[in-house]
Structure formats: structure tokens, C-alpha cells
Design a protein that fits this description.
Helix content is about 45%, strand content about 20%. The chain is built from 17 helices and 11 strands. The strands form 3 sheets. The chain has a 5-stranded mixed sheet with strand order 7-6-8-5-9. The protein has a 4-stranded antiparallel sheet with strand order 3-10-4-11, sandwiched between helices. The protein has a two-stranded parallel sheet with strand order 1-2.
Length: about 325
Amino acid sequence: MNFRKKLLGVVAASALALTACGGGGSGEGGETIDVTFGYIGDFNGTSLLAVAEQEGIWEKHGLDVTPKVFTNGPLQIQALGTGDLDFGYIGPGAMWLPASGQAKVVAINTLGEADRVVAQAGITSMQDLRGKTVAVPEGTSGDMILTLALEEAGMTVDDIERVPMEPAAIVAALSSKQVDAAGFWYPALATVKQQVPDLVELAQNTDFEDTVAFPTAFVAGNDVVANEAEKTTRVLAALREAMQYRTDQPGPTIEATAAMLGIEAAQVEADAGNVQVLPVAELDRLTTDGTVTKWLAGMNDYFVAAGKLDAPVEPSEYYTGDLFTGAGQ
């Protein structure tokens, strides 16, 4: 199902979120605040920033935003910790970093459906990966989908030759058949499939949707949330307004994202087909009824079982849901 079709069922619900436009985060009449904002160059990581820039939403809320592109979430968490970024974007695989106390999750963005375990032709099951070289970007959703798929198959990383790689290196390694398989994601996999059309998909997010959610999120440095309340509120109000636009205007959102990334709109639309967009009113409900907390608690459990964390921080301590909903008041 493509992005536009997915949104037809949620546009009506999004009308309830009109209060998200404007509200307490407006910078009208106030001093402009400088913000550095990290993102990843895909639909999930770029669309709201593209909309906010194109539609003048940053300016409306008194923000001068400098976007900085990254290849993954962990690098952004590191930049938040050093003060090189104020805000950033992470996928589900990097959620263990806020869960270890290194950053705050200030807004849930979407539910990701783009992750896959893929293999070269002739490999037809996870069991076939025993002893094979499997590339993975460390600490990302690709890492997460691989771990989950191995567990479901009764295996662990000890049963494969796990090779940590950067995303660009994985594209090259899969395309040249230097590795047997990878835990990876779209849209980068679409590039690989142009070179390796018989690439086999062994696992995907929806295989685990009954037990694990894959939320993408916006994060902020701990010091930003603790000491820069006005900046945080304005950014959240702007993100809420961009979320509203993304739900109501899927076509223009795709065009804006394509323009920011410098790629064809058709490529962005294909990428958006692997995303479950959540209207801002729905995000408010999922926050207040505890659903987001349950998602994050489930991810905490996964990260402990996967050996990423020993004692994670409680979701209520690193997800600032009250700030997100409050920015719409």
C-alpha cells in the first residue's frame, strides 16, 4: 500500500489536531532562537524538516534551524552529548541510547516498516545464514531486525559471522556480493536491488509487529531539555505543525522531501510506502493513554535481552511526552 493510500484513513482523525498549529510554542514577537537539528536522509528522518523549512514553520515559531545530515542515529546521540546538536532524529535501533540516559526522546515520529534481513540468491531462510557473513550497521534498526530474526529462528549472533559496517559500505558489499547477507533498510536496499535484483528478503518489521513496535523519534540533548525550555517548546510546536501538514498534504510533503534530499519524488514516495505515519492527534492519544510508554518498555526489554543494556532508564524518565502534548496547548 502506498503512502497516499495509507493516509486516507487517518486524515479525518488528524483534523482533531488543529490546535497543534500555533499554540504556546509560537515565536511571534519574540527573539529568534538558533537550533542545530540532525537528520537522516530518508523520508522518516527528513520529511518534517523539509516541510518546516518549505512552509515557513520554523520562522513562524521564531527558530533559525541549521540542519545537519547524519548516516545513523548513534552518531547524532554522540553529537547531542557534545553539544554539537540540539535535536536529532533516530530510528528504533538507536533507542537504546536514550534508554541508557544519553538523551531525551521529545517526540515520536512514525512507526518504521523499512527494515529487512536480506541475503544473496540461494539463501532461503535464516537457518541458511549459519556460518555466513552478515553485515549490519551497529546499534541501528538493521541491527535490531537481525537480532529479532535470529532469535525467532532459534539462533544467535554466535551462529553467524557478524560484520559491523557503515550503511554506504553495506550497499557496496551487498552489490558486489562481498557479504552473504545484511540487516538493513529501505530506501538504501532499493539501490542494492538495482545491482542485485534476485536479493532475497528473509525477515521484515511486520513479522514482529505483535510483540515489538519500531518507533522512530526526535531526540534532544539532556541539557537542552533541562535548561532551554523555550527552545524545546518552540521546536516541539513546530514539529507538531509539520506533522499536521504531512498528514493532510502527503503529495506536497513528498515533493518537499525530495527537494531537500535532491532526489526524484518517485524515490521518496517508494520510501514513504514503508512508513506508518501517525497523525499528531493520534500521537497525543498514544502518549496520554500509555501506549508509547509500553512501546518503549518493550524495546527496553529487547535491548536487555540483546545485550545492549544491563539496567535501562524507565521510559517515563527519557520520553518527555508531557512536553510534546503541552506544546499543542
